Each structure stands twice: as structure tokens, then as C-alpha cells.
From TrEMBL:
It is found in: Cell membrane. Its main location: membrane. The lineage of its organism: Bacteria, Pseudomonadati, Pseudomonadota, Gammaproteobacteria, Cellvibrionales. PANTHER family: LIPOPROTEIN YIAD-RELATED, STATOR ELEMENT OF FLAGELLAR MOTOR COMPLEX. InterPro entries: Bact_OuterMem_StrucFunc, MotB-like_N_dom, OmpA-like, OmpA-like_sf. Pfam families: MotB_plug, OmpA. It comes from the Bacteria. The chain crosses the membrane at residues 17-39. It is a single-pass membrane protein. Belongs to the MotB family. Keywords: Cell membrane, Coiled coil, Membrane, Transmembrane, Transmembrane helix. This is Chemotaxis protein MotB.
Amino acid sequence: MSDEDEDKCKCKAGLPAWMGTFADLMSLLMCFFVLLLSFSEMDAMKFKRLAGSMAQAFGVQNKVNVTDPPKGTSIIAQEFSPGRPEPTPINEIFQTTQDVTEMSLKVECSEDFDVEQGEEGYDAGVKARVKEVLEELEKQTEQIAYELADALSAQILAGQIEIETEGRKIIIRIREKGSFGSGSATLKPEYRDVLQEVQAVLALKPGHVKVEGHTDNIPINTARFRSNWELSSARAVSVAHELMRGNVINSRRFEVSGMADTKPLASNNSADDRAKNRRVEILILQSLDDDLSEDDKAVLQSPDGADILRDLKLEPDYLFELQPEEIF
């Protein structure tokens, strides 16, 4: 080759000029895909569904160790030995099987999965919000009790009734003094006016009305009442009938029960204590069905809700009313 040809083929030192531009372009593309990957989120639920469908389509085989391996019998010992053949265990046996009880991965989820409730239950913020709502409702119940006490102030000062609250429950306690004779379930005429005042107040206040009769622990066995159960029930019915007189209050709001001496206020060790236990209580039970959202109800009906109700000393049995289809 001549010197002239060598001069024509001589290349410049280093990489070609286009190589730098190409390398920059590749670097930018790589950065772009890295950014896309960093912005993406993996949908765990869809991944589980996909894994379950793949397992169902192709099957998943597990290698299970056999706890009691099968045993074989020596052919030589069986055919040629005069002795009795003994089974000999094989050193190690594996059985390849398919678990038919779990053909696919079970995924309990829905498209509208509630992010506020995970595997550990509702978060602290949700529970704090529901607790705050319940505390506000308790204050409303106390306000209603104050209004009742103001309307029945004369009867309270006379010692005929008492009013107190327990959570969302208002208790109007009627003492035996002045209301019933000893061993009797007939209301005294002068006490009917007191119950008429109570009726006028109850008609304006919402809630389920439960009338409970209570006695002391001294047994009774008369021609009319065979036990304190019958006496307490009869007294509760007498009060309920008086409250329902004139259809001022819808009778469907009422529930009547006799408790005998099962819920004493005092120890029954003295005449004064037994007098405290002989009473009729009118309980105004205010449910939460009309005051809470469906989400808040769901929280209270969960295990976390039981803790909230326990902290506020609320009884869950009257907080939610049964729907017609739930009654059996």
C-alpha cells in the first residue's frame, strides 16, 4: 500500500463524534424508565388475584414428607427363607401430591376496599373521631335529663322520683313511698298525677321506654303474687299502663319487665336499704341509628367499637335498633 493510501485511511484518535450523542440519549432513556418505575405502585391485591388464577390454571404441587412410610417385603425371604418374612422400611420416601383443599389463593377483598381499616383494625384517628361523636351525644342526653329534672322539679323535691343518666340512658326512678301500698301493685290515686307529669315530658323526648319493676329480697307468697317476680312485673305494668293512658305516647315505644330482687341499689341489710330497692324505673334508651353515619356504625359494631363503648360505659344492646328482617 502506498503512502498516499495510508494518509487517506488514517482516522482521528478517540470515539466518533456521534457516539457521545448516542450515549447521552441512552442515559436519558434509562433515567426516564427509572423515574417511571419509581412513580409506579404495585397493586398487591391484583398480584394476589393473578397468583391465585395462575395456581388454579397450572396447579401447585407440594412435596410432602410421609410420616409413616410404606414398607416392603423381601422377595428372597418370602420365597426361599423358611422364616417369617419381616417388613423392612425404606430409608426415605417422598410423596408428590396436589393439595386439593386449596386449589387457588383465597383473597378476601373488594374493589372498594376501605383504606381506613386494615388487618389491624381501624386506625387511631377513626376511633378518636367516633369516640368524640359519642361523647357529644352523651352531652345531649345529659341536657335532656336536665330538662326532665326541671319539668319534674316539684316531684324530685318531694322525694317521689329521682333522675340520673348512664351514657345514652336516662333513668327516672319511682320510689315505692307514696306510689304503691305494701305488697300491692295498684297505684295510689294521688300518684297518678305524678305519672301524668312524667307522661307529658316523655311524649316530647325521643327514645325507647323501658319500665322495670324491682323489689327487695324479702319473699312474698300471697293469693295474688306467688313471688317477687310477679309483684315487680305487676308494678311495672301498672306504671306502663298509666304512661300509655290516652295514647299520648305510642305503645310501641314501651317495654315492660319485672326484675324482682336481682338488681338491688342497696344491700338489703336494713329497712332503709330495702326501701331503696323497692322501686319502679322508667328508662329512656336512646339509640344511635339516627345520630351516626353508616361508617361510624360500622366502627362501633367492630371489635374496636367494643373498646370504645367500654371506655364510655355504654351498653351496646340498646344502641342499635333491630330491623324487621333481623327479628326472629
